[in-house]
Design goal:
Layout lengths: L8 H32 L1 H18 L9 H6 L1 H19 L3 H27 L7 H24 L19 H29 L4 H20 L3 H26 L15 H21 L1
Helix pairs in contact: 1-8, 1-9, 2-9, 2-10, 4-5, 5-6, 5-8, 6-7, 6-8, 8-9
């Protein structure tokens, strides 16, 4: 069985799979400097990590929806109505206070981050045998990789970082619950490792991209939330390993892989200059949003 690359092996590796491992390497090599960087250059870390990556990656979805004429016409009511509904829900939540508003947004953001990793796993598992045990095992490990660190956050003493604002999550300090969840976490990771080894020995096939996504998620979420207690480390591991792969996925699937006749005006982005313009447009929109805040 061939490896189930989304685009090509090189682009998948460098743009989707590698960022989590690269950032983790940066963290371990330069961890003594990161605190100083955060203190002395907090504006620039916020600008490049939050605005230019985290906020920008959200707007890359425009190249799959609003900027694609045929897609927009196909779901016009959804694309017009949904932002209005979300805005009204936001106003409703803010009516209960800013803390309620940001708390709900934080939980939604966590859900979004978790589901993106699950989505990548499903994409890379698309050529495997369609069995319940395969699907459930993949879901079990990727949800464990992401939910356990969040439970650790909820049950431990206050962390030095937050998702949006302070006191956004329900917290209940309990070493007992941490220990129980840690044992379950270790058992599930052990199950994943053993099952992966068993399947390799049985079939002589190892799904490289799927397992790299899983391992990268395990490492980035564990070290970003559990092992380290540092705002910049959390932001690096959280944002880079999430935002860059998503922007790459949008470009590779919605622009680079499509024939020109299906793209309309977006075919101008199908070259090296187009990649630069793609990134600059996202950065420009993200910067404008933050400036208006």
């Amino acid at each position: 069985m061939e490896q189930p690359w989304i685009h090509k092996s090189k682009t998948d590796f460098w743009l989707i799979l590698f960022p989590a491992f690269f950032v983790l390497g940066i963290v371990f090599v330069f961890q003594d400097w990161l605190s100083e960087i955060q203190e002395d250059y907090s504006f620039y870390t916020w600008l490049f990590l939050i605005v230019f990556i985290d906020v920008a990656h959200v707007y890359s979805t425009l190249f799959k929806t609003y900027f694609v004429k045929s897609e927009f016409q196909r779901r016009k009511k959804l694309y017009i109505g949904l932002p209005i509904i979300c805005f009204l829900i936001g106003l409703f939540l803010f009516g209960f206070g800013s803390s309620v508003f940001w708390s709900v947004l934080a939980y939604v953001a966590v859900f979004h981050f978790i589901r993106q990793q699950y989505g990548f796993v499903r994409l890379y598992a698309r050529k495997e045998e369609k069995s319940k045990i395969n699907r459930y095992s993949d879901a079990l490990i990727i949800y464990t990789a992401t939910i356990y660190p969040m439970l650790y956050w909820f049950f431990s003493s206050p962390r030095s970082f937050n998702w949006f604002v302070e006191k956004e999550f329900f917290r209940y300090e309990s070493q007992f619950l941490i220990q129980v969840s840690t044992v379950i976490y270790v058992l599930i990771v052990a199950y994943y490792l053993c099952r992966t080894l068993y399947l390799y020995l049985k079939t002589s096939y190892f799904n490289i991209p799927k397992n790299l996504i899983i391992i990268g998620t395990l490492l980035s979420w564990f070290f970003g939330i559990v092992y380290f207690n540092n705002d910049l480390v959390f932001t690096l591991l959280n944002v880079v390993s999430h935002g860059i792969p998503y922007m790459a996925l949008i470009y590779l699937k919605e622009i680079d892989s499509k024939p020109k006749e299906e793209m309309g005006e977006l075919f101008h982005f199908k070259n090296s200059k187009g990649v630069i313009f793609f990134v600059l447009i996202l950065i420009g929109i993200a910067f404008t949003e933050e400036y208006l805040w």
